[in-house]
Every structure is written in structure tokens, then in C-alpha cells.
Design brief:
Order of helices and strands: HHHHEHEHEHHEHEEEHEEH
Number of strands: 9
Distance between the termini: 21 Å
Oligomer: single chain
Structural class: alpha/beta
Largest sheet: 7 strands, mixed
Number of helices: 11
Shape: globular
Radius of gyration: 19 Å
Strand order of the largest sheet: 1-9-8-2-5-3-4
Length: 294
């Protein structure tokens, strides 16, 4: 089945779940769903186990692996409800919002770097409730097309319109326009397609490839960067953290490469720290350290 077709079928299932079944029955269904994928996916299970061993500092037990799979499934379920506008019963604790609001008050938009950690969609709850600004998401083109199909099927047209596909001629222009409106432009900075440039930096005890593209984008746009993590803490409960990360680099190429390399290392170090703090929130199911076949 083509990914686009699968995404649309999944979206339709989620729409049925949201409107016909409700959150609690859907939440209960996650237990057999997570158990099935845990048992039926040996290669992703090995990759997840390798990550957990590093984050936990010990060999993971079966319940650790199940907890990771269940957390991932929970964020997917929550995304369906949030996209459909059913966010009234969600509890969100926010830390560091003052720093973000101060940046916006200065008349300056910024880039928001996230990761495949918790729920990036939870950031929209903050934007909708306490920080009403434009929020656009930069995403690689194939993923953007699939997610747009999911949002369209769910009735989330506004969410779909806010996705900016990377690799298109207008992507940079749309991102720049959003920043000039004091908006926020978010992207995930821990993974990227193999064709992109990477830098091997320390991560959870061993060198791992991190993309340089997000940091180069910040340099080209002349935008400051903040980190954001939407941590899944339990049923319909998230903790969102905003952290200052980097000021805008001065224009020109002099010293840019070294500055970007330093930012990649700092980003990887911060991600490693929060993975150790909340190990069941980083969703990695492939050989991130490239020790074997990806």
C-alpha cells in the first residue's frame, strides 16, 4: 500500500475514533495496538532497545519497551483529537513561555527546534491558548504531503495550511514572511533524509549523525533559535518546555561553519540530557547510530 493511501486510511480511522468512540475507549485500544507492534516488529524493537539501553543506563526490560511503544501510540491518538479541535480536556504545563513571549514582544520571530520527542503538536496548544502567534512547520516534502493528507482527512485544513514543504522554491520565502510577522517557524532537528549533510557528534555515549540543515537555515534566515519539547506525561497530560538556544548568527560566511558545528553539538547534548530525563518520549525505531543496516 502506498504511504499516502495508508496515511489517509489511518486518518479516516482516527476520525471515526474521535467522533464515534471517544478518547477513553481509544486510549484503551492502545494497549493491544502497542503490544501488537512491539511483538510484530523485531527490527524496530532492537533499535528501540539499543536506544533505551543508552538512555536508561541499563538493559531495557520488556516493560520498558512496551512503555516506549505505548507512549508513542498515545501521542498519535492525542494528535487526532488536537487536530479535530477537541483539546478542552487536555492539561498542559508550560515552562519557559516568558522567554518566548519576550522574544515576540521585541518584534522578532524565531525558529523553534524540536525533535522526534513527545508531541510537537502539543506546542500548538500553547500557541492557541497563551501565545497567539503564527506557527508554521517546516517539513521535508514527502512527509509534508503525507501529513497534509492526514490533516485534510481529519478536517484540519488550518493545520495543513501551516505546513511548509522543504525543498520547494517558496519554502524559504514563506518561512521568512512568517518570521517577519513575529511568527514562529518550527522544525525537527534530530533527523533528516540521508541526502542531507550530517555531522557526527556525541549522543548518549557514542557519535551519531545529526543534520546540519536546520542550523544552516537559521543562519541564512538570520533568525534566533529556541528549543521546544512537548513531553507526554500521561493520559491527556503534557509538559511543554521552551528554552533559549542560539542568537542569530551575524551575516556573512566567515566563521559560519564552525558556529554551526558548535550548535549541532549543543543541540545533541541537550537532546541527550532530556532523553535521559524522559527516556520514553524519544521515538526512535531505526539504527540511529548506524552501527548496522538502517
Amino acid at each position: 500500500m502506498a504511504p499516502e493511501r495508508g496515511s489517509i486510511l489511518l486518518a479516516r480511522f482516527m476520525v471515526w475514533l474521535v467522533h464515534s468512540v471517544g478518547w477513553w475507549p481509544g486510549h484503551l485500544l492502545l494497549y493491544p495496538i502497542a503490544a501488537y507492534f512491539l511483538l510484530a516488529s523485531p527490527t524496530p524493537r532492537r533499535a528501540a532497545g539499543a536506544y533505551l539501553a543508552r538512555a536508561l543506563g541499563r538493559p531495557p526490560r520488556p516493560r520498558d519497551l512496551f512503555r516506549l511503544y505505548f507512549s508513542f501510540a498515545s501521542t498519535i491518538l492525542d494528535r487526532a483529537f488536537l487536530v479535530c479541535g477537541k483539546a478542552d480536556r487536555y492539561r498542559v504545563e508550560v515552562h519557559g513561555l516568558e522567554a518566548l513571549q519576550a522574544r515576540i514582544a521585541e518584534g522578532q520571530g524565531c525558529l523553534i527546534f524540536g525533535a522526534h520527542f513527545g508531541s510537537f503538536e502539543a506546542l500548538r496548544l500553547v500557541a492557541d491558548r497563551g501565545c497567539p502567534v503564527d506557527l508554521a512547520i517546516l517539513m521535508h516534502e514527502a512527509n509534508a504531503a503525507r501529513l497534509k493528507a492526514v490533516f485534510d482527512a481529519m478536517g484540519g485544513a488550518a493545520r495543513a495550511a501551516a505546513i511548509i514543504p522543504l525543498g520547494t522554491a517558496e519554502a524559504m520565502l514563506r518561512a521568512k514572511e512568517c518570521l517577519e510577522r513575529n511568527g514562529l517557524v518550527g522544525l525537527l532537528a534530530d533527523r533528516a533524509p540521508r541526502a542531507e549533510r550530517f555531522l557526527d557528534v556525541p549522543f548518549l555515549g557514542e557519535a551519531a549523525p545529526f543534520p546540519t540543515g536546520p542550523h544552516l537555515l537559521a543562519a541564512v534566515l538570520g533568525a534566533p533559535v529556541m528549543l521546544a519539547f512537548g513531553i507526554w506525561r500521561g493520559p491527556r497530560h503534557y509538559e511543554v518546555r521552551f528554552e533559549p538556544f542560539a542568537e542569530a548568527l551575524p551575516p556573512g560566511r566567515e566563521g559560519r561553519e564552525a558556529a554551526i558545528a558548535g550548535q549541532v553539538r549543543r543541540y545533541a547534548a541537550r537532546l541527550a540530557a532530556i532523553c535521559r530525563e524522559h527516556p520514553y518520549n524519544w521515538f526512535n525505531f531505526y539504527d540511529f547510530w548506524r552501527r548496522g543496516d538502517a
